[in-house]
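Structure first, sequence second, as always.
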């Protein structure tokens, strides 16, 4: 049995979970359609966003994150899970982020429903700390782009595209 134990099989917990999520998203997209898959991933993203937001607030010992902390948290959380996000630009009204490496790795390709995880986590963190957020993903590795580009708007703008998020408090 040592030959099985020592076999060079590219399998570990991290890869297994990425594959599992990728195939799960693909299966939902294939069976229920992209819109339904995005909706289901959004539910999970909301819960994860709430948990991550609470973790950073607790670790920083603050009741809320300021706008600079929000963008730093977005970059840091993605770094911690294997992404390569960075701030392209930031002002009082919006944060624009780029990304060269998706945390889902190659398993995101052709599975754009997984982008709802980024949208929801970023949207929840921004909205819970500013009252409002709108997230638009204009480029995505999942769509075959060479990078991701995510705009998080912190003020409402009539007619703007993207997914809106509001603070649970109001």
């Amino acid at each position: 049995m040592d030959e099985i134990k020592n076999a060079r099989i590219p399998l570990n917990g991290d890869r297994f979970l990425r594959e599992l999520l990728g195939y799960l998203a693909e299966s939902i997209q294939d069976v229920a359609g992209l819109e339904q898959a995005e909706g289901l991933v959004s539910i999970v993203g909301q819960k994860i966003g709430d948990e991550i937001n609470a973790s950073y607030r607790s670790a920083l010992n603050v009741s809320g994150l300021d706008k600079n902390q929000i963008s730093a948290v977005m970059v840091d959380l993605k770094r911690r899970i294997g992404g390569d996000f960075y701030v392209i630009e930031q002002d009082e009204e919006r944060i624009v982020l780029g990304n060269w490496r998706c945390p889902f790795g190659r398993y995101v390709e052709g599975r754009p429903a997984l982008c709802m995880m980024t949208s929801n986590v970023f949207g929840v963190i921004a909205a819970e700390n500013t009252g409002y957020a709108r997230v638009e993903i204009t480029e995505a590795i999942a769509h075959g782009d060479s990078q991701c580009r995510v705009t998080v708007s912190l003020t409402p703008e009539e007619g703007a595209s993207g997914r809106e998020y509001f603070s649970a408090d109001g």
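Margin note: The chain has five helices and five strands.
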